[in-house]
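Hi C.,

You asked whether I'd gotten around to modeling the 206-residue construct. I have! Everything is below, sequence then structure, no commentary in between.
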Amino acid sequence: RDSIKENGVLVPALVRKKPDGRYEMVSGHRRKYASQLANKETLPCIVRNLTDDEAVIIMVDSNLQREEILPSEKAFAYKMKLEAMKRQGQRNDLTSATELQKLAGKTSREIIADEIGESHEQVRRYIRLTYLVPELLKIVDEDKMGLRIAVELSYLTENEQKIVADNMEYLDVVPSHAQARIMRDKSEKGELTNEEIEILLEEEKP
């Protein structure tokens, strides 16, 4: 803030003109906030003609540059960007590791992964987090449950996930990856019961 007060904003924000004649900020929200705190009346901006999907992709890329970002924020950001790419004609498969559509020799998920320095499998894992109920997603954000375990639980039904979350809180435990995998297998076969969940979570881990 002190730097902005003294020198102003050195990197312009990015805006686009809306059909009603107003302008919408695409990136630069933190610079705008810092300028307001520094009592600056104006903010330098670049105006670009952008489609909705182009604006989404730029906004997501800008947000991912933050130093600290929660797993849930990454998850929904990656999903938003891939869906925008899909609407632009760059087809992709958001959650399946098979039958990926090719784009210039790479899947769009691999292209995203290259841009952010993650493996495309890690991108897939993050996107699976968007299928978790809020109670379980919160545990991931609090760094109390690993990504691979969370991915397995994301395949459970919403009701099963809530039962798992309730039992985790009551028993003060986190399932192992093996236990989460068993729950997923039983769920996909329609065999996962409340009792099964409780028995699994009560098991001692090796």
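If it helps when you're writing up: Residues 90-103 have pLDDT under 50 and may be disordered.

Thanks,
B.
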